[in-house]
Design brief:
The chain has helices at residues 2-23, 27-49, 58-77, 83-109, 115-142, 156-176, 181-199, 207-229, 232-255, 260-265, 288-296, 307-312, 315-327, 346-353, 364-367, 389-392, 443-456; strands at residues 300-305, 331-336, 361-363, 376-380, 411-416, 436-440. It is α/β, with parallel strands linked by helices and 457 residues long. The relative contact order is 0.09. The chain binds NADP nicotinamide-adenine-dinucleotide phosphate. Residues 205-206, 208-209, 252, 256, 306-308, 311-312, 339-344, 346, 381-385, 415-424, 442-443 line the site of NADP nicotinamide-adenine-dinucleotide phosphate.
Length: 457
């Protein structure tokens, strides 16, 4: 009866995980998807707590209390802008847990393991350990605790690949003879070291792709744990996590027009000095009151948010501006680039937090044909995602990256603090075009002034 109940809990958890993941595929259903997945996790925990193998609950209760307290604190106090590093930290914890289960299984059964179980445990420990340290380095880079720029040295890729080859050598030797305990612990240590070395040469701005990939590794480590300890829900949840994380990394690379090998081994940092930009002429500075009047009397305004909106936390002021314009009968649309900001869905999350209705958000393919009919394109802290060089200059390092074609609007206004470049470090010819005006200042302050001026206009 008890076993039957456990299997029902696991089945329900698996179905809820799949439905939750499906819900996450659309911003409108994402919240519900999260709730379904949370409920699924509760079912998985209940099922596991019913296991006969549990001989005492003291440590489990202590862990539950500690984990819930930390989780609650993180949920309440970590700001939305710190979400990438928060995610990296969570992956490190999950992967460490998988790795420790593998070490515990090996120390319990060691030489008596079958080849299959040894393979599953080695896979789990290898991926779990490299994901733990890799995610911690990603966290430290994004948090500014270590230098965000790529940390490189001569022969780095060769050294890293040699280290990986030795680690895989240990893996194969253990498959042939599970009793070789020193090799198991050597593999563990090498995997921890490999995680650090893998992520150090990657620039901070590429971390979201790396985090999605590490997420996938953590999922695969969990799936291997499932095989090692004979737990079906771990196999299903781990595989879902592994697959979705991998697809997400590929999609992000595609939207940035980069290959995954370039992200991992290209040491392409956050700054590329002086790409062959086609920028020429002078930037034209405009004043806030004129911009407010221009927008207040426009038929259509398209707002393009970017990383600068996130750093300025300007989403609420932006929503107020959209309200003020709509009250005057202006049609306001938000154009969302898939890699605007620094993590997938960054803009969607922030705009949802400011209660911008989902119906007002337009994807790249939907909005691009509308720019020629748009009176004002308001670029709020975005740079690379509106860089026309990606479309017009085949020699540009970002050539081929799909962009929001704001330069085709009748008028463009760019809100930024100064001459700062975007993630790619490239100059943006948009800022030098005749139809483009620059409104300098922190986006939140500028938008607050624009709201007041638009209401008076
Ligand atoms: P961006 O190209 O990084 O440009 C952001 C701009 O915001 C900067 O030019 C900066 O200029 C301005 N800014 C910064 N703080 C500001 C503030 N407080 N107020 C006003 N402006 C501010 O941003 P993006 O156009 O969103 O492009 C995202 C980039 O990140 C792309 O290159 C993408 O490939 C990359 N990326 C994205 C992801 C993802 O998942 N979303 C992942 C990895 C990489 P000033 O310094 O002059 O103010």
């Amino acid at each position: 009866m008890r076993d039957y109940f456990i299997e029902i809990c696991y089945l329900a958890a698996s179905v809820l995980f799949i439905l939750g993941l499906r819900g996450l595929s659309h911003p409108e259903s994402a919240r519900r998807g999260m709730q379904l997945a949370e409920f699924g996790m509760l079912m998985a925990i209940i099922g596991t707590l019913m296991k006969r193998e549990i001989i005492g609950f003291e440590w489990i209760i202590a862990g539950l209390f500690l984990g819930s307290t930390i989780g609650l604190a993180i949920g309440l106090w970590v700001p939305m802008t710190a979400m990438p590093q928060r995610t990296a930290f969570s992956h490190a914890c999950g992967a460490l847990a998988a790795s420790l289960v593998g070490v515990a299984e090996y120390s319990l059964h060691g030489a008596h393991l079958t080849g299959f179980k040894m393979g599953a445990i080695s896979f789990e420990v290898l991926l779990g350990s490299l994901t733990t340290t890799g995610s911690l380095i990603a966290f430290a880079k994004l948090e500014g605790m270590i230098r965000g720029a790529p940390i490189t040295y001569k022969g780095q890729n060769v050294f890293n690949l040699s280290l990986l080859a030795v680690t895989i050598g240990c893996f194969v030797a253990l498959l042939l003879n599970p009793g070789l305990a020193p090799l198991f612990y050597l593999m563990l240590a090498l995997a921890f070291a490999f995680g650090i070395l893998l992520v150090l040469p990657i620039g901070a701005a590429d971390m979201p792709v790396v985090i999605a990939l590490l997420n996938s590794y953590a999922g695969l480590a969990a799936a291997a744990t499932g095989f090692a300890i004979g737990n079906n829900v771990l196999i299903i949840a781990g595989t879902l996590d592994g697959g979705s994380g991998f697809i997400l990394s590929i999609l992000m690379c595609k939207a940035m027009n980069r290959s995954i090998t370039n992200v991992l081994f290209g040491a392409f940092g956050s700054v590329i000095e002086g790409g062959p930009a086609t920028a020429a002429g002078e930037m034209r500075e405009v004043n806030g009151e004129d911009v407010a009047v221009q927008m207040a009397y426009a038929r259509q305004v398209v707002i393009v948010p970017g990383y600068g909106m996130a750093t300025a936390q300007a989403q609420h002021a932006l929503r107020e501006l959209a309200n003020a314009l709509e009250e005057r009968g202006v049609s306001v649309k938000f154009a969302i680039h898939p890699v605007a900001g620094r993590m997938p869905g960054h803009m969607n999350v922030l705009l949802a937090e400011a209660n911008v209705p989902y119906s007002q958000l337009y994807e790249l393919e939907q909005i691009n044909p509308e720019f020629p009919l748009t009176d004002v394109a308001l670029v709020v802290g975005a740079n690379d995602v509106v860089n026309p060089d990606a479309r017009d200059n085949p020699g540009s390092p970002i050539a081929g990256m799909p962009i929001l074609e704001v330069d085709r609007a009748k008028s463009v206004v760019v809100l930024k603090r100064g001459q700062g470049r975007g993630f790619s470090g490239l100059e943006n010819p948009l800022f030098f075009k005749a139809n483009c005006g620059m409104l300098y200042g922190d986006a939140k302050e500028t938008l607050t002034q624009l709201v007041q001026a638009a209401r008076k206009a």
